[in-house]
Amino acid sequence: MHQEWKLGCEEADWEANVLLTAKKSRALSHVVEVLAEAHASATELRRHVATAVLDLVDADMCSSYAWDPSIGRFEGGVGINLREGHTDRYLSYHQYRHSSRMSQLWGRTGAVRISDIISNADLHKTEIYSDLLGPDHHKFGIQMALFHQGRYLSDMRIWRSEGTSDFTSQDKHLLDLIEPAFARAYMRLSTAINANRTKIHAEALKGLSAREAAVAELVAAGYSDKEVARKLGVSFPTVRTHLGNVFNKLGSRNRTELAVHLMGRSSMENDKLKPSSG
Is residue 93 a contact partner of residue 77, using CB atoms and an 8 Å limit? Predict the structure, then answer.
């Protein structure tokens, strides 16, 4: 049983017809639903979409990173079904040590199978495979990059484990199909959050030290504690101490309540993403 999908997005000026099985159709519907939901941050959006995409292309694990052009490196690691510390290890070490062929993946438009860039035999000889990918049983990979008006935003690195087969042309087509809507959702959310950060009034930060205020703003914008530590040039325990003080002083029980306190509930509600037109 197959179902024909016709998806379109007027703003992104794209449209495609895809013939899918009932299972694939349900998985694609779920991705569309995730893109239409409200998300507290662009990082959260990537995490939820990554989980849905694993089902869409029958994959086992995924990592995703945001590109920061101001510093020329990846930030904001998100990992699904990976060992603890996987994304931190990549951000702190491996992103600076890619081979020339692996570097061809970054910033490319369209979904790209890893095997089209480097053979499995050669991949297994690389440092990143021995130290990072191999221990997590990565076998076949495909990468999707997000672009908005030519600007590189983020990527999604999707993998199948040992005992599986490589990704197909249909998998590539499905990722290419969702990328424009994903990129626009990511861009809208990032823009809205950045705008909201400028609306934080001094009154909302009253009683906090300068360092506590800086931590509070970054956490409310969706950054993890380790990302905050890197951005502010302080240790992870120091960030946790400052964040604990922020929660106590502002009466917030968690990160969501902190974001609402600083940005205002009404502005958070306005960040809800609408489905792309079909």
Answer: no
